[in-house]
C-alpha cells in the first residue's frame, strides 16, 4: 500500500517543481550579480553546444562563435536553470526511491538469514535427537540380546534340572 503513495508523492513533487522552476526563470534576471552570473553560464553553454553541433555535422570548430545578446542569454540561462531544478528534483526523488528500495531489500535479506539460521538450528537439533535415538536403540538391542541369551541359557538349565528330577 505504501509503494503507490510514495510513487504518487514523487510524481506530485515533480509536478510541483515545474511552477517553482518557472518562478526561478522569472526572477533569474532581477538581481544584478545573479544576472551577470547566469549570462556567463549561458554564454559558456552556447559556445559548448555550438562547438558540439559543429563537430557532429563535420564543420570547422576553430571559428569565433558570436556571443548571445544579453536578453537571449538571460532567457537561455533561465531555461537552463529551470531544467536544472526539475532535473535535480527528479534525481533526488530517484535517489530516495533507490535508497528506500535498498533498505527494504536489506530487511528482506536479514529476514532470510534469520530463517536460514532457524532452519540450521532445527536441523542440528534433529541430528542430535537422531544420534540420541540411535544410542538408545543400540542400548535396547544390547539389553534385548543379553536377555535373549540368558533366557536361552535358562532354558537349558531348566531342562537340565527337570531331567535330574525325573
Task: Write a concise synopsis of the structure shown.
The chain has 166 residues and is mainly alpha-helical. The protein is built from three helices and no strands.
Write the SSE topology:
Blueprint: H1 2-27, H2 32-56, H3 70-165
Helix pairs in contact: 1-3, 2-3
Query: How much β-strand is present in the residues?
Result: under 5%
Radius of gyration: 43 Å
Low-confidence stretches: none
Shape: rod-shaped
- Characterize the main sheet: none
Order of helices and strands: HHH
Instruction: Tell me how many strands there are.
Output: 0
Number of helices: 3
Give the averaged pLDDT, no decimals.
81
- Backbone structural class: mainly alpha
End-to-end gap: 96 Å
Percent of residues in helices comes to over 70%
Structure description:
By secondary structure, this protein is mainly alpha-helical. 89% of the residues lie in helices and 0% in strands. It has three helices and no strands. Helix 1 packs antiparallel against helix 3 and helix 2 packs across helix 3. The radius of gyration is 43 Å and the shape is rod-shaped. The model has no long low-confidence stretch (mean pLDDT 81).
Amino acid at each position: 500500500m505504501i509503494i503507490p503513495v510514495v510513487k504518487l508523492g514523487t510524481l506530485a513533487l515533480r509536478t510541483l517543481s515545474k511552477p517553482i522552476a518557472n518562478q526561478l526563470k522569472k526572477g533569474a534576471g532581477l538581481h544584478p550579480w545573479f544576472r551577470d552570473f547566469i549570462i556567463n553560464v549561458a554564454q559558456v553553454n552556447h559556445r559548448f553546444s555550438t562547438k558540439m553541433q559543429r563537430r557532429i555535422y563535420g564543420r570547422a570548430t576553430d571559428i569565433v562563435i558570436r556571443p548571445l545578446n544579453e536578453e537571449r542569454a538571460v532567457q537561455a540561462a533561465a531555461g537552463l536553470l529551470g531544467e536544472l531544478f526539475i532535473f535535480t528534483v527528479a534525481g533526488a526523488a530517484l535517489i530516495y526511491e533507490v535508497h528506500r528500495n535498498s533498505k527494504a531489500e536489506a530487511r528482506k535479506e536479514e529476514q532470510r538469514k534469520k530463517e536460514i539460521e532457524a532452519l540450521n538450528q532445527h536441523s542440528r537439533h534433529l541430528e542430535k535427537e537422531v544420534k540420541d535415538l540411535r544410542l538408545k536403540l543400540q542400548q535396547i538391542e544390547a539389553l534385548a540380546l543379553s536377555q535373549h541369551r540368558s533366557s536361552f541359557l535358562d532354558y537349558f538349565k531348566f531342562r537340565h534340572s527337570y531331567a535330574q528330577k525325573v
